[in-house]
């Protein structure tokens, strides 16, 4: 659900889309039972338990999804009669430079939402392990995680002020003698998108760090001891033990943050509305604009479906890549 | 063995840098929120005379009392019902293994990757058709629906691991599925249910897109949704904008600090649970 990604809060994106073959159980769980043959009669009555949830999901997710597919083949302003236009809306999504650029921006954001946070988080988590400082680890956990629990819309407000002409970013730059590069960051078409991206880094860094820290905690300590005895340095140990041991956790971080990047809405909508010009426009905000300000329901739906298809197209191979051998 | 100084110093430095990066924007907001109202302060300068009453003013001007009360109503509508439905469905899928349950499960998995944007336009028309546009119910029902993929996924993982012998023993004693659910499985599931409730609370409180689309009145939106109106209202006064935004963030930060262990554990479990 769309909360853990930038677009909605901590729940969405929290889960990997496909079940891992052997995911470690949460601590509060009873260890999995060994599979044993069960012979049961078909329990159709059990559907009474599943029906209410299935119904809510069908009515408020699947039905709108189906409607979205239907709308995408029509030209409709939401009020007058819709006309069937076949694939025209899809053709437009792939040919209109503005719509195409919004898709490109979403992919560009992956650098800031995924690549930077996961890389830095790996280093930080590795170092915390190396330092074996409980206090520092706990403090880091608390401070780094706060950006992840506040509303993404609020994060956008905080950073809008950071990036303002009189904001802290320019102030810092002046202090270190870089007065010449100060600017209104959101007002500069060349810098607005990376500036928005950095908000994503801010939000995701803590989540990735803590997830990777907990993953490192599960790696067999004797491996680290053996490496130390062999005289391996930090980076050697990091490459030979930490990275392979974190395969699954890295996969989760990448999956969640890539969804957050591609489906970003809250941050961009609050920070720049896609501007200046179209320099920070992303598909999420574009769908909102087309659907609710420009009343081009068909085009909005086609773009939204293309976005969903792209998310799946990126996530499914990633799942395979990070699946444990 | 102690960590060599050559790793220790850059290690601690990088950590401190990451921590500073995380709280810097919040500090900058706090510094600004304490400046005299109407001034245009610098981003990071502690005021000589901190104006703490700015928070009181922002609270009153933004009517945070109404806002928070209203957001709690939404949470009360979404969380208990959402958790109940998900627990029942998780029980059906994980413990009863209903025939055809895997089809439902795959459909739910689809919902985990689906961006909200793809349903929002049709959802608007659907809620309008139902006559629920701009009502709390019209926001609560879709939020429950959108929560189902993760929530059922979560509860199913719990019930998959709950010992089946319990149900068998209960049915020997003549208990039906419902009785064994209520008397045997529900109490055991309480920790999972509590974590789910906490996560759902955060996600509801922070939900933005649905709130701004389905609810015109900012005072009836989620806390995050209310922020949208907030910015327009205070674009002229940076000080009040920052004070008000901090007030809106504060509940989540407090909830996090208070339940830190549970939240972190639940979020991590939620992301790796399969």
Describe the structure.
The complex is a heterodimer of chains A (325) and B (274). By secondary structure, chain A is mainly α. Chain A has helices spanning 47-71, 88-95, 97-131, 134-149, 152-162, 168-175, 192-217, 221-229, 234-245, 247-262, 266-271, 283-293, 297-322, and strands spanning 74-75, 83-84. Among the domains of chain A are: 58-95, no CATH class; 110-297, MetI-like fold. In chain A, a hairpin with a 7-residue loop joins β1 (74-75) and β2. Chain B has two domains: 1-50, no CATH class; 61-270, MetI-like (MetI-like fold), CATH 1.10.3720.10. In chain B, 78% of the residues lie in helices and 0% in strands. Chain B is built from twelve helices and no strands. The radius of gyration of chain B is 23 Å and the shape is globular. Chain B starts with a helix and ends with a helix. The chains are: A mainly alpha (325), B mainly alpha (274). Chains A and B meet through α1, α3, α4, α5 and α6 of A and α1, α3, α4, α5 and α6 of B.
Jot down its keywords:
heterodimer, A: 325 residues, mainly alpha, MetI-like fold, two-stranded antiparallel sheet, 2 strands, disordered N terminus, B: 274 residues, 2 domains, globular, MetI-like (chain A), transmembrane helix (chain A), ABC_transporter_permease (chain A), cell membrane (chain A), ABC transporter permease (chain A)
């Amino acid at each position: 659900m769309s909360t853990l990604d930038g677009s909605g809060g901590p729940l969405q994106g929290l889960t990997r889309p496909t079940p891992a073959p052997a995911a470690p159980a949460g601590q509060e769980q009873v260890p999995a039972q060994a599979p044993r043959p069960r012979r049961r009669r078909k329990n159709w009555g059990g559907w009474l338990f599943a029906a209410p949830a299935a119904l809510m999901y069908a009515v408020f997710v699947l039905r709108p999804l189906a409607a979205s597919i239907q709308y995408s083949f029509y030209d409709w302003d939401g009020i007058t009669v819709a006309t069937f236009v076949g694939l025209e809306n899809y053709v437009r999504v792939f040919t209109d430079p503005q719509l195409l650029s919004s898709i490109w921006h979403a992919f560009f954001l992956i650098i800031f939402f995924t690549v930077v946070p996961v890389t830095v988080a790996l280093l930080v988590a590795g170092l915390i392990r190396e330092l074996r400082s409980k206090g520092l680890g706990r403090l880091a956990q608390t401070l780094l995680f706060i950006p992840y629990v506040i509303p993404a819309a609020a994060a956008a407000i905080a950073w809008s002020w950071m990036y303002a002409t009189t904001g802290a970013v320019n102030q810092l730059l002046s202090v270190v003698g870089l007065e010449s590069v100060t600017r209104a960051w959101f007002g500069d078409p060349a810098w607005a998108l990376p500036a928005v991206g950095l908000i994503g880094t801010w939000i995701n860094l803590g989540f990735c760090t803590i997830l990777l820290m907990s993953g490192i905690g599960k790696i067999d300590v004797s491996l680290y001891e053996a490496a130390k005895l062999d005289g391996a340095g930090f980076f050697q140990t990091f490459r030979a033990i930490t990275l392979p041991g974190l395969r699954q956790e890295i996969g989760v971080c990448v999956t969640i943050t890539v969804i957050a990047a591609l489906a970003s809405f809250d941050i961009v909508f609050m920070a720049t509305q896609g501007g200046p010009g179209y320099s920070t426009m992303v598909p999420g905000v574009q769908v909102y604009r087309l659907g609710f300000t420009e009343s081009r329901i068909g085009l909005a739906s086609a773009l939204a479906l293309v976005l969903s298809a792209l998310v799946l197209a990126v996530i499914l191979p990633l799942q395979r890549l990070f699946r444990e051998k | 063995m102690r960590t060599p100084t050559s790793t220790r110093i850059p290690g601690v430095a990088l950590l401190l840098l990451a921590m500073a990066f995380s709280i810097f924007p919040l500090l900058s907001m706090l510094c600004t929120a304490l400046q005299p109202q109407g001034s245009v302060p610098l981003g990071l300068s502690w005021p000589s005379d901190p104006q703490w009453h700015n928070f009181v003013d922002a609270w009153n001007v933004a009517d945070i009392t109404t806002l928070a009360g209203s957001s709690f109503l939404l949470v009360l509508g979404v969380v208990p019902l959402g958790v109940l439905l998900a627990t029942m469905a998780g029980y059906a899928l994980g413990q009863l293994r209903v025939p055809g349950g895997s089809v439902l499960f795959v459909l739910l998995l689809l919902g985990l990757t689906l961006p909200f944007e793809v349903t929002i336009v049709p959802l608007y028309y659907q809620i309008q058709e139902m006559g629920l546009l701009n009502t709390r119910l019209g926001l609560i029902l879709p939020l429950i629906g959108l929560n189902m993929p993760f929530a059922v996924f979560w509860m199913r993982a719990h019930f998959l691991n709950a010992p089946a012998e319990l149900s068998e023993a209960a049915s020997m004693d003549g208990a039906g599925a419902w009785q064994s659910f209520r008397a045997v499985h529900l109490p055991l599931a309480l920790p999972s249910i509590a974590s789910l409730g906490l996560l759902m609370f955060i996600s509801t409180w922070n939900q933005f897109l649905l709130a701004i689309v389905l609810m015109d009145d900012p005072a009836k939106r989620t806390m995050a949704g209310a922020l949208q109106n907030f910015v327009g209202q205070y674009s002229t006064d940076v000080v009040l904008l920052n004070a008000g935004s901090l007030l809106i963030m504060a509940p989540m930060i407090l909830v996090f600090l208070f339940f830190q262990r549970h939240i972190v554990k639940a979020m991590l479990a939620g992301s790796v649970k399969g």
